[in-house]
Amino acid sequence: MASITVQTSPSLALIKYWGKETQxxxxxxxxxxxxxxxxxxxxxxVTANPAASCDRVSVxxxxxxxxxFSTVIDALRERAxxxxxxxxxxxxxIESGNSFPTAAGIASSSSGFxxxxxxLDAWWALDLPVAELSRIARTGSGSAARSVFGGFTRFRxxxxxxxxxxxxxxxxxxxxxxxxxxxxxxxxxxxDGMERTRTSSPYYDAxxxxxxxLIEKAEHALADRSIERLGPLMRESYLRMVGSSIAASPPxxxxxxxxxxVIRACDDLRGEGFVAWETxxxxxxxxxxxxxxxxxxxxxxxxxxxxxxxxxxxSVGGSPVVTRKDRDNGDSEA
Amino acid sequence: MASITVQTSPSLALIKYWGKETQxxxxxxxxxxxxxxxxxxxxxxVTANPAASCDRVSVxxxxxxxxxFSTVIDALRERAxxxxxxxxxxxxxIESGNSFPTAAGIASSSSGFxxxxxxLDAWWALDLPVAELSRIARTGSGSAARSVFGGFTRFRxxxxxxxxxxxxxxxxxxxxxxxxxxxxxxxxxxxDGMERTRTSSPYYDAxxxxxxxLIEKAEHALADRSIERLGPLMRESYLRMVGSSIAASPPxxxxxxxxxxVIRACDDLRGEGFVAWETxxxxxxxxxxxxxxxxxxxxxxxxxxxxxxxxxxxSVGGSPVVTRKDRDNGDSEA
Lengths: 334, 334
Description:
Two copies of one chain form a homodimer. Chain A is an alpha+beta fold. Chain A folds into two domains: 3-167 and 321-333, 2-Layer Sandwich (Ribosomal Protein S5, domain 2), CATH 3.30.230; 170-315, Alpha-Beta Plaits (2-Layer Sandwich), CATH 3.30.70.890. Helices cover 35% and strands 23% of the residues of chain A. Chain A is built from nine helices and 15 strands. Chain A has helices at residues 70-82, 108-123, 130-138, 144-147, 190-200, 204-223, 227-246, 257-271, 295-303, and strands at residues 3-8, 11-15, 32-36, 42-48, 56-59, 62-63, 92-98, 152-155, 163-166, 174-181, 277-280, 286-291, 308-315, 321-325, 331-333. In chain A, a hairpin with a 7-residue loop joins strand 8 and strand 9. The longest helix of chain A is centred in the middle third of the chain and has 20 residues, at 204-223. Chain A starts with a strand and ends with a strand. At the A-B interface, helix 6, helix 7 and helix 8 of A face helix 6, helix 7 and helix 8 of B.
């Protein structure tokens, strides 16, 4: 094999994962329900780099500290060795890039670690079950456990891997807008934000307990494709996540003025009968769940909000695509 | 007596009252620690209006529904009757106004109900103990229980009245800036916001439990006049109040984009060594605790924040002032 290229999409949680179990790596304390953002792609290419003394990983052309990726690379290399692959210890060159602005603050770690996991599985022809890929991707980033699937996914509290719920065709009318705000001052990363919330927020236990109720209701709403029920549950989920974080000591606040402006604009849009249910993660960007019917109107209105720089629009889906390039023939997709 | 005029100041909670006991009227579920805003004044004048068929209350020249004031007026009139005042049932004209913009969203109900209570006590020469005035003012608005005192006050959880802690001279260097933002869409009043939080926020119990810890620490910080300790506790208090509210169903969110801009500007100012500890209540305005030394710099910087319309500056204090005007001689202050 000359190269393996894998494309994946970021996983957007409609019901939020926030907080880890103290045992294990990235075991979620709260269950999440998510969609893949089909039109936002991470592309990761693996090639052999036998002359190098160790693996090289670059993202968007910038070389990365290798230890960020070691749980995933080590786990898969270990299996390559166990299965007798003679190239298991050949150093690799791993180049990754995103189709969306890298400064977007979108969870590119979900698609990034998923792509890495799938690419190495293909590179060493391990053919691991996708649940196992999810488990391995999780050790790089919790949400990556969901990105190895496309469509609608669930990641249960306390689980080692995520699971598919429906494919993209379940609800093809859905659209997700990502409103990219001005970048703010450097804030706390999601890993540290979660940890500070867990250890110092008086609301953490209630957040975890309540999340169990929310996700169950949201699963029913998704089963019924009811945006009228799913939307308010999405809002409650992210606002309770925010509520638990700003209650930490010191407080963790990801919002910028433009974040609030977008939240209020969504409220106005809903008041006018449009579908516009916002959610947020560990950053100032706002993601909006809408429909094919309303996407253009919502996009126009949100684009006019002060502090919004760019809006990305995506349908739901985002199943991984693997492309193998052999030395002697062209591409093949699987 | 021809008229009684009482001036009071709004009470700003540094540690927040948010949530009521289910028994009684406005019995706070969380203790609060507050300062009077000396340079913001509510002035309320009581005169006899014997030709009228009932009392008349106006605020800023606009006549108000009488039932808003009935708990306070009825309680004091009852005592006037009990003490044999022949004018107990004479209808009154009660005119109130604020020295600060009425649309400011500052807790003018605290100073308003305190002024009303003190004015009627003086009008009927009841000479009730101030703790009793606090108890009566509370039935109009919880925070009014604090405004009948000046300086630093405390209102314990579960109490019927507030109590003075220190007078203004305890910490005269303190200043409070009130950053008045654009007025936003009409949101939920504090009474409804508290109630929705109590009945639907999964964080309410934790909020109430945690508030006990916070106020105790804050009392020590105030006793030591330590802004380095009081400031972070203030932030934790209001952000936990906000966290409990946005977790309600449906969420209660008072912030505007400018609110977040001011919060971030305070963060920047603190990073540069200035004293600027913000707090918020049931509205988009941001109040900032600073010192005489830093007030001018903080004011300039906050004035340049997009969406900030006006900034009011106040020292701490705000003891009530009663002015009696007799029919045949001039004013006398007591």
